[in-house]
Write a structure and sequence with these properties.
It is a single chain. 41% of the residues lie in helices and 12% in strands. The chain is an alpha/beta fold. The protein has a single domain, classed as Rossmann fold (3-Layer(aba) Sandwich), CATH 3.40.50.10400. The protein has a 4-stranded parallel beta sheet with strand order 2-1-3-4, sandwiched between helices. Helix 3 runs parallel beside helix 4. The protein is globular and about 40 Å long.
């Protein structure tokens, strides 16, 4: 399948999934729903869903491989620093397998999203900007 793979990027504020605000979870979920509606044949990578699913070793995104075998320690036993590093690495790896990046309106206020935008530019990915009101 050669469908579009869209990576959602925006301000999260933490890599501790238990500390992410409800507002942030809602913002990413709404962006995901918008993209699925606008691009019905695409695959959408929501980093918040990824962080929740990875703890259970759930490979859930078709066409994007998640190498759990590289973890010598179960994810839930990693320190927050180790989990953060792993999630950052995996987010960038998945971004490199994507065909587009969807930048939420707050992307400029996130160091991670700024870096993801730079990677997307470097790789020549399609850049899709969220409109103020969707």
């Amino acid at each position: 399948m050669n469908s579009k793979k869209i990576f959602i990027s925006g301000k999260i504020g933490t890599y501790d999934i238990n500390a992410v605000s409800e507002e942030t979870i809602k913002k990413f979920a709404e962006a995901e729903m918008y993209l699925r509606k606008t691009y019905p044949d695409c695959q959408v990578f929501n980093p918040l869903e990824f962080a929740e699913h990875i703890a259970g070793n759930d490979v859930w995104l078709e066409g994007i491989s998640i190498p759990f075998e590289c973890l010598s320690t179960p994810f839930e036993n990693l320190t927050l620093k180790q989990r953060t590093r792993y999630l950052k690495n995996e987010n960038i790896r998945v971004l490199t397998e994507s065909t587009a990046i969807y930048l939420l309106t707050d992307w400029r206020s996130s160091a991670g999203a700024l870096f993801e935008k730079e990677v997307a530019d470097f790789l020549g990915l399609e850049i899709i900007y969220q409109k103020e009101k969707q």
